[in-house]
Structure formats: C-alpha cells, structure tokens
Design brief:
The chain is an alpha/beta fold. The protein is 39% helix and 19% strand.
Length: 478
C-alpha cells in the first residue's frame, strides 16, 4: 500500500472545537485513514479553546505581519490527531462561536480570517514545512475553499486538491473588493470561471472551480446539488464538473457512539441486551419531567432548529404526536421563533413534550439510548449524523427521503421515510411508526437491523483513500 500524505483544512475539529457535523468528520476521518496508509495532518485556526488544548505545541513558522498582525504556525497532537494550528491572535483570539459574534451576526472580517487559513494551507502545500510536504490538500467547506484557488493562482508546481462540500447552504460570500486584500489577483480571479458569484465572490465557488476532485457527504446529495434548486446557485458549475464529483457517506466515531461502553447513558446495552434500553428511557423521562410510560412511543430530536431541518413541520405534526399517544423529547437551538414555539408546546403539554434549548453532549447520548424513535424531518440534508447514531443505539429513525437520510435509512428495513417533505407526509410516517411500535416483534427487528448496520468510518475512509490515490495517479499520467 503506497503511503499518502494529506493536509486537511477545516475551521473546526472535534473534540477541540465543534459547532456542527463538519467538526465530527474533520476529527474522525484522519484517525480512520491511518488504517488505509494515509498520513493526514489537519490545519485549523488557533481559537482560544484550541490554544488552551494545544499548550506546548511546537512553533514551525513565524510571520511578523500576517494579514495585519503577527502570526505563528504551530504543530502538535491532540486526541490522536496530528495538527497544524494557525495562531494569529488578531484574527482568532475571540470568545464564543468561531464564526459569529455574541448577538449571532457574522464577524465582519470573516473573509480575511478564513482567507488567512487557506493561504497558509497553500503555503504548506508548496513546502513551507519541510517535515510535512503533502501530496494532497483536502479543503472542507467554504472556510477552506480558497486553498485550491491560491494553489491555482500561484502558478507553481502544486499538490493535488480535493474540495468537500458539507452543506451547500453556506457559501462564504463576500464583496469583490476583498480579493486584493487577501492576495488574489483581482482582475484575473474576478471572472465567471474564477471567484465571481452574482457580482461578489464566493469562497465555496472558488474551491469547486479549482479543486481537482470534489466530494460531498452522500451519493444522493451529490446528485441533488447538481440541480438548480439543490445547487443553490452553483448547480450549473457542479453539472460542468460532474466527472470529478462524488458522494462519500459520512460515518460516526464508533468508539464515542457505542452503547456497550458509553459512559454518558444510564444503562449500557447491546443487541443481546436490548431490554436495558428501558432503563435509559425511564431516566430520560424522569430528567425531562415526562410521564413514566413504557408502552407509549417516545420520540427524540437532536438538531439545529431551522427551516432546513424541517422543525417547523414537526410542530405542525404535534396533534398527530398527541393523538397517537406519543411523547417528544427535543434538544436543540437555532431560530428564535422555533425555540419559542417549542418552549410553548412544552408548557402546554408538560408531561408529553419536553424541549431543552441549547446543546448538552451527555443529554444527546441519553436521548439516543432512551428514545424509541429519532425524528429527522429535514427539507435537505447532505448526510446527517444523528440518524447514524440512532441506528447504532436502537432508536428507530423517522426521516425525510432526502440526501444522506435517503442513503442511510430505508423503509421497512431500518426505519420510516417520507417524501415529499410536508407536515402531512411526516404525520403519516409518525402514524406508521406508532402502529409498528405496538407490534413488538416487528419493532425489535427494526432495532436489531439498525444495530447491525455499519455506520463506522472504516469503509468510508477507504473510499477517501482510493480517491486520493486515484488523483495522484492521474496527476502522474498528465
């Protein structure tokens, strides 16, 4: 097996910094790739949490002025991950969320902040760190999208490039005037075949335009984003580049999400000890103030509260939930109106509906271990991770038939699916699930089939390794 050196570039990496599924992928994939002969280092920004967790990291480069202030490149390890950290305090030493201010608005200099990350990725690709010269630079989402563009416009021998789309809805759009400030050739790059995007520039478009290979996080989503609607303004470009676009399903870290060893749940279990799930259900009901019912289906939601995730449709389905004798346990945050509406539903039905606004890792694990079914009614979903965890924990998924949800859950084998994505179709799926729940042998078979499903990174990592090697071979032949 020929070894491969890959530089991954990501704005968040679990367990160091996480706001969403990107961090889970960026944290789990490098470790899974080791078994496939891939040596991956991940470049990320030096946010305050990162700097605290990487105390003692080695300085490998220093700039007196890097995008407006002094900066350093550090190398270190954490939780099995080999990391490069861009320590530029005037760009990254800010409290809270990596992308937004305390009031939820984007940091006004986000364009410069993530251009700086992409620029050093390109420099590492050119050999900035002699001890690690990558053969592939793998950029994740818009925050890393300029890395392939810098490598293109540098007009020098370069490594191969891969761009992964985790969510087309986030495109990194900025004013065209930014190009000069971030060291890109303004006239040359501001073109329909460059960064230009409806009069401005898009970091995501840059990555899609110039990467040698494009991936996204499920085969169905790879097809959906080539449509005008699914592509959100970039469908035409993706159709043009369809020959280098592929969908590779995400996995979950099965050492973290393992009901046999999970320290965050009330009672550990596996396929041979499914009766122990009852204790987790009771613990969850007690914690959330729900009635202690064993013969009523308990639904779970772990999600960002947004239009994309279809959580407004679930509100419309509450009469069905109540009419079927179901309970609902929701954990999430996001749109202020949706947060208020779920709080109101919980106040109106305190023993049947519970809404915890925010995020709590331990509660997320208990929900997976304790609910009978997990609901993911997304209008679009690149891959989704919660339904993969649900399969692993014996919580039967009820999902919309889109993106990675369609690729990972099938009815009648492992769960319940619905489409088109409407509240009526969601309600119909809930009623089918309620009926099946009361057929105990059928429900147990759903759970066991889910538990037997491979949701790990093992095979998915192999697909990335094959992609890297294929790209290297094609570049040698060119």
């Amino acid at each position: 097996m020929t070894p491969v050196r890959v530089l991954a570039v990501a704005s968040e990496v679990y367990p160091i910094v996480k706001t969403g599924g990107l961090a889970d992928v960026a944290g789990a994939l490098p470790i899974a790739l080791k078994a496939h002969g891939v040596e991956m280092r991940t470049l990320m920004p030096g946010y305050p949490d990162v700097m605290r967790m990487l105390a003692g990291a080695q300085e490998v480069w220093r700039w007196p002025d890097y995008f407006g202030g002094p900066g350093r490149l550090l190398a270190g390890t954490r939780d099995g991950l080999d990391l490069f950290v861009l320590d530029v305090p005037h760009l990254y030493a800010r409290p809270g969320n990596p992308y937004v201010t305390a009031d939820g608005t984007d940091w006004p200099d986000n364009g410069v902040r993530f251009a700086a990350l992409a620029r050093v990725a390109a420099d590492i690709g050119h050999g900035l760190v002699s001890a690690f010269v990558p053969e592939i630079v793998h950029a994740h989402d818009w925050q890393a999208g300029l890395a392939p563009a810098y490598l293109h416009y540098d007009n020098r021998p370069r490594p191969g490039t891969v761009m992964t789309i985790h969510n087309m809805a986030y495109q990194g759009k900025f004013d065209r005037a930014l190009t000069g400030a971030i060291g890109l050739p303004g006239d040359a790059s501001f073109d329909v075949n460059g960064l230009e995007y409806f009069g401005g520039i898009s970091f995501l478009k840059a990555g899609l335009q110039f990467a040698d290979r494009i991936t996204t996080v499920s085969p169905t989503y790879a097809r959906e984003i080539q449509s005008d609607e699914g592509g959100m303004g970039l469908g035409g470009l993706l159709r043009e580049r369809a020959s280098v676009l592929s969908g590779i399903l995400n996995g979950v870290d099965v050492s973290v999400w393992n009901p046999r060893t999970d320290p965050l749940i009330a009672c550990r279990f596996d396929a041979d000890e499914m009766s122990f799930r009852v204790a987790n259900k009771a613990t969850l009901q007690q914690r959330l103030g729900l009635d202690l019912l064993t013969d009523a289906p308990l639904l779970g939601v772990i999600s960002r509260l947004s239009w994309q995730k279809g959580l407004d449709l679930l509100l419309e389905a509450i009469p069905t939930i109540l009419g079927e004798g179901m309970q609902l346990a929701l954990l999430g945050s996001g749109d202020a109106e949706l947060q208020d509406r779920y709080r109101e539903a919980a106040r109106a039905h305190p023993r049947r509906i519970a809404a915890v606004i925010g995020y709590d890792e331990a509660l997320a694990h208990l929900i997976q271990a304790g609910v009978d079914a997990l609901v993911v009614p997304s209008r679009f979903e690149p891959c989704g991770l919660t339904q993969l965890c649900a399969l692993r924990y014996g919580a039967v998924p009820i999902v919309s038939r889109v993106g990675g949800l369609a690729d990972t859950v099938s009815e009648p084998a492992t769960g319940f699916t619905f489409g088109p994505v409407t509240s009526d179709n969601l309600s119909a799926a809930l009623r089918r699930a309620s009926l099946a729940f009361h057929d105990k042998p059928a429900w147990r078979q759903l759970q066991l089939t889910g538990l037997a499903t491979d949701v790990s990174w093992r095979n998915r990592a192999g697909e990335y390794a094959a992609l890297y090697r294929g790209l290297m071979a094609s570049r040698r032949m060119a």
